[in-house]
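Much of the work behind modern protein science is quiet bookkeeping, done one molecule at a time. The protein below has been through that process, and both of its lines are reproduced in full.


***
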Amino acid sequence: MESTPTIDLTSNQPPLQYKPVAQAERIKTIDMLRGIALLGILLMNIPYFAMPERFSDAFRNDTGNINYWFSFFITIVFEGKMRALFSMIFGAGVLIFTERKEQAGAGRWAVTGLYYRRMGWLILFGLIHAHVTLWLGDILYGYGVCALILFWFRKLNPKWLLGIALVLGSFDAISNQLFYSNMREQRLAYLDVIKAEKAKQPLTKAQQEAKTVWLETARDFIPDKAEVDKNTKLMRGSYTDVASYVRPLAFKFQTKYMFFTLWDALGLMILGMALFKWGFLTGKLPRRTYWRCLAVGYGLGLPVVLFSWWYGHLYPDVTAFLDSQSVNAGAFLYPVQRMLLVVAHVSALILLIQSGVAQGVFRALSAVGQMAFTNYILHTILCTLIFFGYGLGYFGYLEYYQLYGVVLLVWTVNIVFSTMWLRSFQFGPLEWVWRSLTYWQRQPIRRS
């Protein structure tokens, strides 16, 4: 996937010349896993393209509703796990990129310069993705920021990398609880203000500030019906209307709230580095190792995620839960269950790949994985044109379970487009742009 440098040893010129890596040099298992992760991410993203905030309140505890069971299945099996897999593969990609440059003879500063230029462009792409194509859930910006840190971990022994990943996972669990506790304090302070207002007591300056703080937090995370209705109207409006809602929130997630989300992705990327160095992600370990990881991951992870689901649905909505529970055990356990389950998922997938079953399917998934950047942006383009007001305007009109028909449609486009494109070209169109910008040189794109 990465461009491999070739060096003219007879030349005194400092610039290195780079050529795209040959198809035979690609790590097919990595491509397949990346493709699966990319498609899987849309399972969680689709409601946020298509539905108003708090959409799940309508079926949150209604076991007779088909939407409840769709939500249950998606949450237990996929939620967080696909993004975790994508993060792990990203960490492995950092090693692939830097090691190939070093093996080809590129010096330390040449590798560093190329790497940081590459990630600088990724950060810019993330800003464009969030603020121009208007996807609130962009991950490119956050991945680019994490990658600036990740570079300095690449030489560590995999045991150290695993230890750091576990520490960051613990820190992520703690930060989840700190975020929840801070929100709950704001909520309780606001409820005290409401009591004072009902008793017609004059509000102190501190109470007025507490009310303002909570209302701002609620607008971002748990808006009331009036706010939801207002935002829904904006999402069904013009490009300018949609942007007026998406951009301020995207900016907050890229600045104000980023401290709470950084550790999750960074820890998983470092875990991906460790697993790549051990050969786990490339299928190089004995089959019995994958069977053991599968058994342990599912054996421990499934009970934890099922408990988290039950615990999170004790109350009819988020505000009732917030008012009653001082600890959010589900959020605290989230990093634990997703690490266990993503390792189990990867083990199952590698065992399937090695078995030779459905080789045509895995080849198609490999094509999607080779063009992950292009396909990720294609998700946004297709979904915004289907759901946002400046497109077909289906925002808020489909039921939750119906969204997965749209997912199948988008997946079909990804698979067909990727397979056909790679018959003639070495890279996806956006992958080619990214490489050309990284090396500051137009890269060949057509197959020889």
